[in-house]
Specification:
Helix content: over 70%
Structural class: mainly alpha
Largest sheet: none
Shape: elongated
Number of domains: 2
Number of helices: 6
Order of helices and strands: HHHHHH
Length: 134
């Protein structure tokens, strides 16, 4: 139980650091800390309603953190293929090489999407750079 509490507090601290360093997924880590701490204390510290609300807020904030920048890539000339490529690349990168994989995956995915859409290398690279989630 002590190990779980320490682990939960560690995730909470890393989640707070994620508020400052955008490369660290702060909200999901902070929510995971709530789950670990609740489990360690027999689900008593936080009510089920509270955990459900926090899960919803975590999902919304994470979408704003990572999906909205991909959509904003339009300002850099990204097409729909580039935006979808960046979202897919970011998701793959998140699971393959977190947290850096999100950045690399988003840029690579957008670049691949733009090249698949027929853009020249320079314009594709500009659109790829525009999806930078940090």
């Amino acid at each position: 139980m002590i190990v779980l509490i320490i682990l939960g507090l560690l995730f909470a601290v890393i989640g707070l650091i994620g508020c400052i360093l955008p490369i660290i997924p702060g909200p999901p880590l902070s929510f995971f800390a709530l789950i670990i701490l609740s489990y360690a204390k027999n689900w008593e510290p936080f009510s089920t309603i509270f955990l459900i609300i926090m899960a919803g807020l975590t999902i919304v904030v994470t979408i704003f953190d990572y999906v909205v920048p991909a959509i904003e890539a339009k300002r850099y000339g990204a097409s729909k293929l580039g935006v979808w490529g960046s979202i897919i690349g970011m998701l793959f990168g998140l699971f393959i090489f977190p947290p850096w994989g999100m950045l690399i995956g988003a840029i690579t995915g957008a670049l691949a999407g733009e090249l698949a859409g027929g853009k020249k290398e320079k314009k594709a690279l500009r659109a790829g750079w525009g999806v930078d989630p940090v």
